[in-house]
Amino acid sequence: MSHKPRIAVHKFSSCDGCQLAFLNMGAGLLELSEQLDIVHFAEAGPLAEDYRVDIAFVEGSVVTAHDVERIQRIRANSDYLVTIGACATSGGIQALKNLAHDREHWPAQIYTHPEYIDSLPESQPISDHVKVDFELWGCPINSEQVVAAVGSLLQDVVPKDNTEKLCLECKRQRVVCTLVTQGEPCMGPVTRTGCGALCPSFGRDCYGCYGPAENSNAAGLARRFSGLGLMPDEVSRRMHFIHPVAPDFDCIPVLQERCDD
After folding, report:
1. Which residues of 110-131 are buried (b: 16+ CB within 10 A; e: fewer)?
2. Are 17 and 63 in contact (CB under 8 A)?
3. For residue 151, is pLDDT > 50?
4. What gap in Å lies between CA 195 and CA 38, rounded to an integer?
5. Residue in 208, 242, 250, 191 with CA at minimum distance from that of residue 15
6. Taking residues 177-203, what's their average pLDDT?
7. Which pLDDT score is estimated for 252?
8. Closest residue by Cα to residue 123 from 83, 96, 100
9. Which helix (H) or strand (E) holds 74?
10. Cβ partners under 8 Å of residue 163, min gap 6
11. Distance between CA atoms of 169 and 198, rounded to whole angstroms?
């Protein structure tokens, strides 16, 4: 007898914001649960991390040796593995420590007994350890992304990866460009859409929450930021704030010292 498709939502090092994309579906989540068995989702109640599932959604980055063992087990128990959010896809804000020269000394500055802290030297995206079938970018992702991904994967179809630049969304919504009119260091020209141009619609420059867009010219934007008066370290913080280890935001001319490492 056939069974309803099973899904699981797993948490690693993260803020839980992307899991809220499921909970924010409200009645939609109840409708989804009628079509699927949600066998593991600690934030919503079900606890069965080692069940075999059709789709495993993973939020958060790998930061401990135990995380490495867990993600390998989850991968072995899932047909599809989908990373959700910045932490899982590019290490997240906590991956800023990857760029620091003294990160090994941080635990001693924070904890009384740093010897008890089982932390890897770097915060790593899930794809550094296991095969990832699809990535949902965002900080956080939104409910529409989840619904679309589930529907596609259950039909054995690769979900659509929306890599359009945020600038196109701003044009569609007739939002005035903050980079051109205000001289603000907006990340829109290199960031994929997904938020509905939320910050620019309120006159605020884009933070880059949804990660690199298709054919991003980060080097060109970095030069523009430099022309606005930002120093190299300020440009670096702008590029790496949400997605510190995203390759498309990594090596830029105004930060030549990083390119030479």
Report:
1. eeeeeeeeebeebbbbbeebbe
2. no
3. yes
4. 26
5. 242
6. 94
7. 55
8. 96
9. helix 65-76
10. 192, 213, 214
11. 10
**For residue 1, what pLDDT band results from cuts at 50, 70 and 90?**
very low
Torsion of CA 98, 99, 103, 106, to 10 degrees: -100
Helical (H) or strand (E) element with 31:
helix 27-35
* CB atoms closer than 10 angstroms to residue 109: 8
Percent of the chain surpassing pLDDT 70? 95
Q: Rounded distance, CA 261 to CA 253, Å? A: 13
Residue type at 194 in one-letter notation: G
Q: Structure tokens of 149?
A: 């991904």
| Helix (H/G/I), strand (E/B), else coil: 7 | strand
Which pair of tokens denotes residue 155?
């039909």
What is the three-class DSSP state of 9? Answer: strand
Alpha carbon distance 9, 38 (integer Å) = 8
Residue 143 pLDDT greater than 90, yes or no: no
- How many CA within 13 A on the CB side of residue 56? 29
Distance, CA of 217 to CA of 236 (rounded, Å): 15
Tell me if residue 202 falls in helix, strand or coil.
coil
What region, left, alpha or beta, does residue 174 occupy, with left being phi > 0 and alpha being psi -120 to 50 degrees? left
User: Per the omega criterion (within 30 degrees of 0), is the bond before 185 cis?
Assistant: no
DSSP summary character for residue 101: T
Q: DSSP class of residue 5?
A: P
* 126 close to 132: Cβ distance less than 8 angstroms: yes
Closest CA to 206 of 218, 195, 217, 220: 195
pTM assigned to the model: 0.88
